[in-house]
Amino acid sequence: MVDMDNPAALSPQPPGTVDKDAPLKEDIRLLGRLLGDVLRDQEGEAVFDLVETIRQTAVRFRREDDQEADAELKALLAKLSREETNSVVRAFSYFSHLANIAEDQHHIRRRRAHLLAGSKPQPSSVAYALTRLKDAGVAQNTVEGFLREALIAPVLTAHPTEVQRKSTLDAEHDIARLLAERDLPLTPKERARNLQLLQARIATLWQTRMLRYEKLTVADEIENALSYYRTTFLRELPAVYDDVEEEIEAQYGAAAAGLDDAAYMQMGSWIGGDRDGNPNVNAATMQRALVRHSTTIFDFYLDEVHALGAELSPSTLLVPASAALLALADASPDHSPHRSDEPYRRALIGIYARLASTARELGATNILRKEVGHADSYRDAAEFRAELQVLVDSLIENHGAILAVPRLNGLVRAARIFGFHLASLDMRQSSDVHEKVLAELFARAGVEGDYAALSEDAKVKLLLDELAQPRLLYTPYESYSDTTNAELQILRTAREIRKRYGRRAIRNYIISHTETVSDLLEVLLLQKETGLYRPSEKKSDVMVIPLFETIPDLQRASEIMGEWMALPVVADVIGHQGRLQEVMLGYSDSNKDGGFLTSNWELYQAELKLVKVFADANVKLRLFHGRGGTVGRGGGPSYDAILAQPPGTVNGQIRLTEQGEIISSKFSNPEIGRRNLELLVAATLEAGLMPHGADREQIERLARFEPVMAELSQRAYKAYRNLVYETPGFTDYFFAATPIAEIAELNLGSRPASRKSTRRIEDLRAIPWGFSWGQCRLLLPGWFGFGAAVSGWLAEGDREQRLGLLREMAQHWPFFATLLSNMDMVLAKSDLAIASRYAELVPDAELRERIFKRIAAEYGETLQCLALVTGTDERLVNNPLLARSILNRFAYLDPLNHLQVELIQRHRALSAEQKVDERVHRGIHLSINGVAAGLRNTG
User: What's the whole-model pTM score?
Assistant: First the structure.
C-alpha cells in the first residue's frame, strides 16, 4: 500500500484551488498506510512488496492498455502460491472496505460543513423540498395533511449479494468511529492513542475470517438485518420525524400541528416471510422473525425506560405533577420511601415492569434487568404509548417540557413507529404455488377435478362462487400434500401473529408472477380458508398485492388491475382498506427479460396506465418498487428515482426494497442512515405535492418525448433479446465468462441462485445475474441496447434534428435524465479491458471472440451515443465526488479482478479433474467480496 503515501496518486487538484476532498485523501492515505503496516507485520515484507508490484502492473495495464503489462501481470499471478494468493486478495479487498469507510466519513464531514456555513439547503434535503413547496404556493396545512396520510416504507430484503459478516461490520463500525474522532481537537497523546486503536482494529479485520464457512440460514439473515435497527433505525428514524417538524416550522414560521400521531415512515421486511423460490422460509421462520423483531424493540424500550428512570428525577417537593402521573406512580410496584416524592421515577418503574411482562408474553427470554415487582402486561403498543404520554403531558404542564427532549419524546415517537412488532413482515409466494394448492383443495372437496386446466374466465367464476360460500374447502379429515399443508399453515400463522403482535405485524401478501386476475383471487380464497378473509364482513386482514415482473406482465398490469377492482367482492375489500390498493413493480426480472432501456420504459408506462385506471376506479394507488442495488435492477440514487416517477404515482404512498450490500452502504453508519431516510421523505414530499398539471409546456414536451422513447425501447429490446436469448451459445458464454457458478457456491444467503436446476437464463434469479456482470466489470444489464437504439434511430431521419430532440429530453424530462445519469454511473464502473480478461475464461475461442466482439461493439456505440446526447465523453461530469472515488479506488480494485480470473482458471481446471482446492475456492470468494465492496452497488 506504498502508493497511499503519494498525494499525487489521489486525483490532485490544479494549483491554487481549494481541495474540499483533501481530508478524504488524507483519510484514505492513513488507512492505506495502516493496512500496509498490518500487512508487513502479519505477512512479511515480501508479501507487502508483492502486493505493490501487482498493483503497479495493474495500473499500467489500465492506463496504457499495455500488452507487455498484461503479459507481466498474467505471469506474476500465475506464479503466486496458494498462501500468497489469499494474502494478496485479502489486502486488496480490505482496502476497498477501508476506502468505503473513508468516503462515508467524508460525506458526513461535507454535509456538516455545508450546514455550518449556512449554505442553501441541499436539493435532496427536507428543507429544500419544503422551500420549493412553499414557493409553489403549497400551504403548511396541505403538507401536514399529506404527512398524516402518507406511508413511506423502506423494506429490507435478504438476497444473495450481501457478503459481509457481522464480525467484519462490527470492526468497521469501530474504524468509522475512530476515523470520525480524528476530526475533533485531540491532544498529541489522544491522537497517538487514536492511531494505535485504528491500527488495532485493522489488525482485527485482518485476523478475522471474512467468509462464512456454513451457508447462511434465514435465522442468520434475520439477525443481520436486526443489527441495522440497533445501529441506525431505532434512534435515527424517530429523529427524522423531529427534523421534519423543525423544518416545517422553520420554512412556514408556525409549529407543525397534528403530527404527533403520524407514522408516515415505517419499516418493512421480507426476511422470514418471502417464500418465492426459497424452500427454507415457512411458518416457523415467520414466527421466529416476529419473536426476534419484538425482542429487539422491547430491548430498546426497556433500556430507554431504565435510562429515563435515572434522568427524570423531579421531586413533588419542588415542582407539582399532574393527577394522571400521580395515579400512574401509585399503580407502580415500587413502594420505596426513598422515591415517594419522585413520581416520574415510580411511574417509569411501573412502565418497565409492564414492558417486561409484555416482552415475556411475546417471546423474549433474556431480559437483562429484573423489574422491581410484577405488573400486568400491556394490551397493545397504544396503551404503552399512552402511559408515556402521561409523563410528557405532566412535564409540559409543570415547566418541564425541556426534560422530555433528550430521551422521552424520542421514545414516544419510537413507540408510534415501531409498536411491539418493529417492522411489518411481508409474505410473498409465486402464483403457480397458489394454483397448485387450490387445485388440490378443489379436487379433494369434490368441487373441481382439474382446476389448473380451466380457462381464465372459468377460474374467475369458480373462485368468485367459492368466495361467496360460507363453508370451507379444507377439512381436517382429508390428507393433503406437504405443499398445501405448509401454505395453509403459513396463513394460519399470519393470523395468529397479527393477534399477538398487532395488525401492523403482517399486512401484505405479495404474489410473484402475477399474470391474471385469478392469481389475485386465489390468494383471497386462501385467506378465506384460514380466517384472514371473512365473507360476512367483506373484509381481508392482509392486502393482496400483485407483483408485475416481466415485460409482458408490466404491459398487462393496468388491464388486470382494472378488472380486479371492478369485481364487487374486491370493491368491498378495497373499501375496508381505505380505498387503497398496492401494486408492486419488479425492476430485476423486467431488466433480465427486456434489458435496461426497455425495462425502465415499460415500468414508466405501466405506472402511467395504473394511475389512470386507479383514478377511474376512485382508488388510491400505492406503488411498491422492487429495486435492487445495481442500476440494471432499479438501483441508483433513491431521491432521483422517486422524482423521476411519472406525475401522480407518488401520492404519499410508496414502498421500496433495500437489498443486499446496499443495506450496509446506506444504513451501517447512523448519520448516513439518517440522511438516507430523510431524502426518502424529501423526495416523497416534492414528488407528491409539487404542482404538475398546470405546466402546459411540459405536457406538450411529453407528447413529443414519449413516442421517441417508445421507439428507442423497441430497438433496445430487439438488440438485448437478440444477444441474450437468441444468440447460439450465449448461455455457455455467460456461465464461462462470469463467476456465476462460483457465486452460486458462495455462502451468501439462504436462497438458491436459480429457481430451477437448469442453466437457462430464464430460470436464473435476476440478482445473481446482475451480480455476475458486476464482478466481471461489464455491468451489461445497466447499458446494453442503448447504443443500438440511439444510433439506429438517428440514422433513420434528420440526424441533427433528432439529436436535438434527445438533448431536449435529457434537459427537460427527469425520467430520461435519470436514466442517462444511472447509465453514466454504470459505464464509469465498467471496464472493457478487465472484462476481456474474463472472456479468456471461455474455452471455445470462436464463441469467445464472436460474443465478446458484439458486446464490445455495443459498449463502444453506447459510449459514443451517450456522449452525443450529453455533450461530453467524460464520465460523471455532474458527480465529481463519485468520479474521484472511482479513480482513487480502481488502482486497488483492478488487481482483484485479475486475481479472480487467475483463481477461477485454477478452480475450473481442478474441477475438470474432479478435484477441489479449498484455498483456491476461498480465494475466489474473497475476491468476490472485495469487488462487491469496491463497486458498492453490484447486487
Answer: 0.90
